[in-house]
């Protein structure tokens, strides 16, 4: 998809949406983003550009989003409350709109204690819900939080995140409903490894009418090794790998874990596509963006794309 | 500034709700708040008393805009991210905080306490951003004078997107506003 289509157009149509993730580099090399974009172009409707993910310093998500868009992929700029007060957050939101970023994903962010600068001051002047609310205020009311008017309003699509698996389970659907009241139009979720639990969460959203007002995009990704599974469950906040899946991956010989993990990912996508109210998947391939087309192809969710890009053509696009 | 640690309230939720009823705004408290606020030395003593009590009972950080009545009397300002609108996505399956796995997420405590008093829907309120000029000021004086009325708002089918800004902004009536440079 060219940026002219992008996430908004995809969500406006009724097809299954695919987004991916681009982690900006730890240096000033703009070609990293271009290379990642080449692997994804044509296979995803948009890609998120993370904001100092895990509280580790990277190229800014604003710069990364502009570079991604220049490389032909619609960008979803992530913006967290961790490092900026309400002045800087509004400033970056306005700046992103001026530079042509058409989607923003607004979240609280990981605590600095978990990243590469644990000595940093945690800001959290606003929380994720309030940041979504702020974005809606800029766009719909055309004012800053101070009340000062914006002559030209931003027009980005407003997204947020939710973790359906974190306790308290009973509150998680209501918490998304609250973010939708604040202004969220799409939500990308934490990794879904437990499809049944996820389906129960989506059912609650449907009951409350939330899925009519907010597109639910389920987070998925392949577990490539047992080490990675241990990392996901032990180190990444809020990720839950059910015991059944753990047994399945432990049950295959070591050299086949990667293939099995990929198969699980593809099956997960197919099952998610069958849940009413799920509008798409957000593929987090853990730095292996080149795997995204393969997963999309195997899941059969983009029949329109499947035949057109061969691995050779992809290789070409990368150069 | 030390990282906030989730604080477990030292009194049961039922007692806290009962205390709130005793301290609920009436004509006397409104008068008292205005009286105290006009006398800087008295205001300092009053605020010190409030701090001592609420710090001991709730781990109060003196944000000056008390959210306790809407959080089962578990203070959200003791969350390491100071989240006012519910738990983040980093809560572990065992309910521990992502910043300190030995401590229970304060929002889980809030949810349990509010639910136990049939006040779970309090957590659905949209909490507006904190006015950072109110730190170290008395939330009781602010509350009794009606300045907390707009710190949260409910959404509903009839009002699916309540405005974030209030007119006039509650902060504009607060005394700290005298020092605002920009008009």
UniProtKB/TrEMBL annotation, chain A:
Entry annotated with the keyword Protein biosynthesis: no
GO CC aspect terms: cytosol
UniProt entry keywords in alphabetical sequence: FAD, Flavoprotein, Oxidoreductase
Record has Cytoplasm as a keyword: no
Highest taxon of the lineage: Bacteria
Listed InterPro entries: FAD-linked_oxidoreductase-like, Mehydrof_redctse-like
Needed cofactors: FAD
Molecular functions (GO terms): FAD binding; methylenetetrahydrofolate reductase (NADH) activity
Catalytic activity field: (6S)-5-methyl-5,6,7,8-tetrahydrofolate + NAD(+) = (6R)-5,10-methylene-5,6,7,8-tetrahydrofolate + NADH + H(+)
One GO biological process term: methionine biosynthetic process
Pathway in which this enzyme or protein is active: One-carbon metabolism; tetrahydrofolate interconversion
Assigned protein family: Belongs to the methylenetetrahydrofolate reductase family.
Protein name as catalogued: Methylenetetrahydrofolate reductase
Source species: Acrocarpospora phusangensis
Automatic annotation (TrEMBL), chain B:
Record-given protein name: Methylene-tetrahydrofolate reductase C-terminal-like domain-containing protein
Chain intervals with Basic and acidic residues compositional bias: 174-183
Matches recorded under Pfam families: DUF5981
Domain (Methylene-tetrahydrofolate reductase C-terminal-like) ranges: 44-131
Organism taxonomic ancestry: Bacteria, Bacillati, Actinomycetota, Actinomycetes, Streptosporangiales
Species, as recorded: Acrocarpospora phusangensis
Annotated region (Disordered), positions in chain: 156-183
């Amino acid at each position: 998809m060219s940026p002219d289509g992008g996430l908004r157009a995809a969500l406006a149509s009724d097809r299954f949406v695919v987004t991916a993730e681009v982690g900006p580099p730890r240096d000033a090399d703009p070609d990293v983003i271009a290379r990642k974009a080449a692997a994804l172009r044509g296979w995803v409707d948009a890609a998120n550009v993370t904001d100092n993910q895990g509280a580790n310093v990277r190229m800014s998500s604003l710069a990364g989003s502009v570079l991604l868009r220049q490389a032909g992929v619609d960008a979803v700029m992530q913006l967290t409350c961790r490092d900026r007060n309400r002045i800087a957050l509004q400033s970056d939101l306005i700046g992103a709109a001026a530079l042509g970023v058409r989607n923003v994903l607004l979240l609280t962010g990981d605590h600095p204690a978990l990243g590469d600068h644990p000595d940093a001051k945690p800001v959290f002047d606003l929380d994720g819900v309030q940041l979504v609310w702020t974005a809606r205020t800029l766009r719909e009311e055309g004012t800053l939080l101070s009340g000062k008017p914006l002559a030209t309003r931003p027009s980005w699509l407003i997204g947020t995140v939710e973790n359906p698996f974190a306790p308290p389970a009973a509150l998680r659907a209501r918490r998304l409903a609250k973010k939708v009241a604040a202004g969220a139009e799409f939500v990308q979720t934490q990794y879904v490894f437990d499809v049944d639990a996820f389906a129960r969460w989506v059912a609650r959203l449907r009951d409350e009418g939330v899925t009519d007002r907010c597109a639910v995009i389920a987070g998925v990704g392949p577990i490539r090794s047992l080490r990675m599974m241990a990392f996901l469950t032990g180190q990444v906040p809020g990720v839950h790998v059910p015991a059944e899946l753990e047994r399945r991956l432990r049950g295959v010989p070591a050299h086949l874990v990667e293939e099995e993990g990929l198969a699980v990912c593809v099956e997960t996508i197919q099952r998610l596509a069958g849940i009413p109210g799920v509008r798409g998947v957000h593929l987090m391939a853990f730095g292996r963006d080149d795997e995204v087309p393969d997963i999309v192809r195997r899941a059969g969710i983009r029949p329109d794309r499947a035949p057109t890009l061969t691995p050779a053509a992809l290789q070409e696009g990368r150069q | 500034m030390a990282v906030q640690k989730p604080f477990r309230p030292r009194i049961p939720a039922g007692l806290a709700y009962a205390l709130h009823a005793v301290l609920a705004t009436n004509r006397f408290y409104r008068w008292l708040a205005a009286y105290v606020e006009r006398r800087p030395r008295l205001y300092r003593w009053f605020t010190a008393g409030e701090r001592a009590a609420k710090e001991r009972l709730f781990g109060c950080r003196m944000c000056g805009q008390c959210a306790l009545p809407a959080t089962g009397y578990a203070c959200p300002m003791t969350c390491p991210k100071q989240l006012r609108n519910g738990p983040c996505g980093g809560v572990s399956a065992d309910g521990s905080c992502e910043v300190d796995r030995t401590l229970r997420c304060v929002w889980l405590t809030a949810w349990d306490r509010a639910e136990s008093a049939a006040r779970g829907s309090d957590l659905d309120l949209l909490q507006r951003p904190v006015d950072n000029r109110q730190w170290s000021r008395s939330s009781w004086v602010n509350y009794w004078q009606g300045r907390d009325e707009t710190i949260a708002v409910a959404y509903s089918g009839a009002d699916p997107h309540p405005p974030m800004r209030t007119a006039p902004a509650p902060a504009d009536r607060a005394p700290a506003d005298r020092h605002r440079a920009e008009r």
